[in-house]
Amino acid sequence: MSMQNKPQMVEAVMFFNERGGVCKQMFFTEFEALLDGVVNMPEFADQQTRIAYVAINPRLLIRAVVFFYLDFDEKGAPDSGWNIPLQHLSERAGRGPDLGAGPIRLACRSQCPVSWHQMHLWDPNLAPGHNDLVLLRDAVKRNNLGLLVEDDSPQAIAPERLHMASEDKWYAPDAAAEVASRVTETMDQEHRLKTAQLIKQQRLRISSLSRQHEEEVAKLKLAHEQQGESLQAQASELRLALRQQKELNATLKAQLAAQAASMQSFREEMTEQMRELERHDRTESEILRVQFENELQAKIAAAVAEYKEQVAIRDVELAYRNEQDAQTHEEVDRLKRERDELAGQGGEQILERLATLGVVFVVYHPGAGHLTIPLQDIGSYRDNPMAYAAAKCFVSEVQYRQWLAHYQQPSCEAALPSGQRCAIPIDRVDTPSRFTVGNSNCCERHKATSRLRTVG
């Protein structure tokens, strides 16, 4: 093989599909052209794609892997703000499994040498039968990229260069024993190295599964808390409506009772007058009775009309109040839009220009690490940084604040009988989703007391 065609270390990029297989391969230079906007990939439009950066040696064996995410817009163009230093991460990555050329350098979410890039990486699936590293190894072996391969077959030795040792040197028991000892030691070292690599691979898989489980638990816990808060708010609204309805019913019952008492007294008075008239003249009594019935019907009709008028007036007042409420809400929404527009005319334009120049807004919060804030999230982060950081940790804002107080001063917060705080130093909980009030922020004695109180 000539010096011009001697194969070198090659950098490639491989795309994974939703089914977990390698669906596309390209050289790293082609990937850089994709990032520069030279070409688009419509097949990945409006998707977050799982990609692997791979360094391949001349014998088609993997030496380094970086698993990362890349977002594509609706036209298939990559995210313009993407800026992960893949080559730097692969050079500083930790040891991974042996894929044929010794332990590889592996950078993923569970093993990231640069902490603020951790959120943009993903953990490979290491389950037997569907190992992402094995898929990459097989894809490289197929050599769909057409790489130059180094011929590592043993060179043939010419017969004239072979020499036979003298007979007195054919047998060397001590040398044979020494060679056997070296071979045994070499095999023992290889066995230990393979065992250590297997343990490393299993630990990486366990770490990946544990992180996925913690994220799922945190998401479920946050959804449960949000659902509980929503149900509590609905229950409060229903209780308020029920109390108002009870008050209205009581008022109407009181009005009906007063009206019934008034009608009863009026009926008794008219009945007494009618009896007196009957004693004097039955004809006149009959006239008075008819008059009484007519007046009674007229008063009833007047009372009914008056209450109908009052109900109509209340309906009109209710409609007018609803209309005023709607106008008030519209006015509030309009003022909010005007406020957002006025606020965005200054700082938002500057932020957009900075984002266009490639500036990335990175902040640090305990528990969440270094967060890269997209331009559209700057407003929500400015309004409530704690809530933003809590959402990134998959916990509520209240739990995040309680955890932050514990993280800044890890001591027992239980109250002693004297009223003072226990303040015994305790182990710090580094993850907000693992923090539990009454357990994580208490010493062993008060933690046990809390559990007994809960059981009792």
From TrEMBL:
Keywords, in A-Z order: Coiled coil
Residue runs in coiled coils: 235-283
Listed name of the protein: Chromosome partitioning protein ParA
Organism expressing this protein natively: Pseudomonas aestuarii
